Amino acid sequence: MKESEYAEKREKADVPDKFSEERRIRDLFYPRENRETDVIYKHKEIPLPNTEVIKELFPVFDIEHEVALPKELWRGSDYQQITYLSNELQKEVAESENDINNELNEEKLEKPSQVEKNREDGERREAEATKDLERMFPKEEGYAIQKEVYLCNEKGEIVKDPKTGEGRRVDIVVIKDGKVVKSVEVTSEIADKTKQVEKEERIRENGGNYVKDRQTGKIIPFSPGVKTEILRKP
After folding, report:
1. Residue 150 contacts residue 168 (beta carbons within 8 Å)
2. 26/213 Cα distance (integer angstroms)
């Protein structure tokens, strides 16, 4: 017998469907899970102001914020109820955000951020490396040391890496007789500089074999064979 024929005969006979009734009882008294959303449903009884009680299945969610409707608004309009609940929820969320911000601010006061510490360590290493190079290449012998210079072409234009679209700024270069005789990248003992080295190689292959003298504005070529060295410091 087809399902439509069975439903028609059941309706005429006014006999409840045994299987539908069992399904209704199961859904009312046993938690079930929505197959599409994985939401758990549980049976709850909710008393109404007119003493009636609603027995239904309701979804169960993890609660981050919860607000309750006061008794005087139980018979209010949808607009009144929604407006009240929305305002209360907004207040609760704002208070929660303030608590989180206060905790974060306290944590910042207790210890400096890792980003700030890394910046300070980087500046310290670069200062130490500059002093070392000044001793090795004294100004009295015609050497000039410059920091934070971009690789550029013979026209002084910054050459971009064809892969990343970025330029390459070298930490320290040593100049003598109009040429770069040493190029240094200062870093920590454990930092991985593979990507920076590969980027510089691509830039050098595309004409980035010069730097602009910060004092004179002249374009200074790299001496043949000079590549940026990685100098590691604690």
Report:
1. yes
2. 83
What the block records as the tokens of 124 is 């310290």
Q: What is the DSSP string of 130-173?
A: HHHHHHHS-GGGT-EEEEEEE-B-TTSPBPPPTTT----EEEEE
Query: Which neighbouring-strand residues pair with 187?
Result: 232
E strands, the chain, where? 32-33, 40-47, 53-60, 144-150, 169-176, 179-187, 210-212, 219-221, 228-232
How far is 64 from 96, CA to CA, in rounded Å?
A: 10
27/105 Cα distance (integer angstroms): 49
Task: Give the torsion through C-alpha atoms of 51, 56, 57, 63, to 10 deg.
Answer: -20
Ordered mean pLDDT values, 10 residues apiece, the chain (234 residues): 49 48 51 55 73 75 70 85 85 69 58 76 92 94 93 92 91 95 94 91 95 90 95 92
The pTM of the full predicted model, rounded to 2 decimals, is 0.52
